[in-house]
Design a protein that fits this description.
alpha/beta, 2 domains, binds oxa(dethia)-CoA, five-stranded mixed beta sheet, 11 helices, four-stranded mixed beta sheet, about 325 residues, about 35% helix, Peroxisomal Thiolase, Chain A, domain 1
Length: about 325
């Protein structure tokens, strides 16, 4: 049996730090509310003059390659998770391929929002297991800041969402690495967290910029409490599904890395699973919710801080727009 293994992990976040105080100065919100309801103290926003989804992804990828002792030329395929591609089309995978100087390798984009990185990991895992590729670059990268409504009307998204990138390199392994991945969706809730436009099914006068009167639908909309209620249920379900599939118990988890949606969601899952603080990794306090980038950024930081050791059982879990939710169990 051939398995896949994460051999390198890296991340990159933009330089500009956006504090709760800054947000409170431009909309009706305040530090106490943000910290109490989300756990976030600050987040990073890009500088549009120099940052793109693809170049942040390239920086994260180069760090992952360096840590894996590999170079760009070793990469045979790219799986790129993002819902905020640099262009409406083509996807960011090809832009990353170009940025890394790789000439003709395949690049696939995945648009599964907060679950995107786990979906991407799962796709790469299958390609490695079948023997189709030996080295795959899996990326989660997002620029949310430019689609956020930065007025009081958009405050429930403005305080949460932010920018960043993370990357992982997968290679084959004789012994398990990725034990299993579990992917789900429920499209009945698609409009509870979405950016509607530029949707292709809009009449031409609502899609073409020179005719647009109302730009509301180009900004992120989220029904926060509805998303929250579903998140806490689905996170638990999909983590238990992964444990059951591998005949493992909650106590076997060495490190849980939940998608960094809201610290209260992470703490709820931690409590339900009865895990102590050193078995759960959170960095939402510093980076906010970076959608598909949040898990690889957290994985990269946790690894760099020495919190992930060989043979540890790592559990990744995510929930978000779609709704989609997913988990992965990894023997490091
Ligand atoms: O990434 C994956 C998907 N996303 C998530 O998982 C996010 C899930 N949802 C959440 O994290 C939370 O729902 C939020 C943090 C977005 C909102 O927190 P909440 O505790 O669910 O607040 P709420 O939406 O129920 O609103 C409570 C009150 C409202 O005021 P009234 O109607 O009670 O007077 C809101 O208008 O809080 C108000 N509010 C704010 N007040 C100050 C909402 N956002 C803010 C804000 N600052 N930023």
């Amino acid at each position: 049996m051939r398995y896949s293994k994460v051999v390198g992990i890296g991340h990159h976040v933009p330089e500009t730090v956006i504090t709760n105080e800054y947000l409170s100065s431009i909309m009706d919100t305040n530090n106490d509310w943000i910290v109490e309801r989300t756990g976030i103290h600050e987040r990073r926003y890009i500088d549009p003059a120099k940052d793109t989804v693809a170049n942040m992804a390239a920086k994260a990828s180069r760090l992952a390659l360096q840590r894996a002792g590999l170079t760009e030329k070793d990469i045979e395929f790219i799986v790129f998770a993002t819902i905020t591609p640099d262009y409406f089309f083509p996807g960011s995978g090809v832009l990353l391929q170009r940025e890394l100087g790789l000439e003709s390798i395949g690049a696939l984009d995945i648009r599964n929002a907060c679950s995107g990185f786990i979906y991407a990991l799962s796709v790469a895992d299958q390609f490695i297991k079948t023997g189709m590729y030996k080295t795959i670059l899996v990326v989660g990268a997002e620029i949310q800041s430019t689609a956020i409504d930065m007025t009081t009307r958009g405050r429930n998204t403005a305080v949460i969402f932010a920018d960043g990138a993370g990357a992982a390199i997968l290679q084959p392994s004789e012994k398990p690495g990725i034990l299993s991945t579990h992917l789900h969706s429920d499209g009945r809730f698609a409009e509870e967290l979405y950016v509607r436009d530029p949707g292709s099914s809009r009449p031409r006068e609502e899609r073409q910029p020179e005719q647009i009167l109302d730009t509301t639908h180009f900004k992120v909309f989220m029904n926060g409490s509805q998303v929250f209620k579903h998140a806490v249920v689905r996170f638990m379900e999909v983590i238990n599904e992964a444990l059951n599939a591998n005949s493992l118990k909650k106590d076997d988890i060495d490190l849980l890395i939940p998608h960094q949606a809201n610290l209260r969601i992470s703490q709820f899952i931690q409590e339900k699973l009865g895990l102590s603080d050193d078995h759960v990794y959170n960095n939402i306090m510093r980076y906010g919710n970076t959608t598909a980038a949040s898990i690889p950024i957290a994985l990269s930081e946790a690894w760099a801080e020495g919190k992930i050791k060989e043979n540890d059982l790592i559990c990744l879990a995510a929930f978000g727009s779609g709704f989609t939710w997913a988990s992965a169990l990894i023997r490091w």
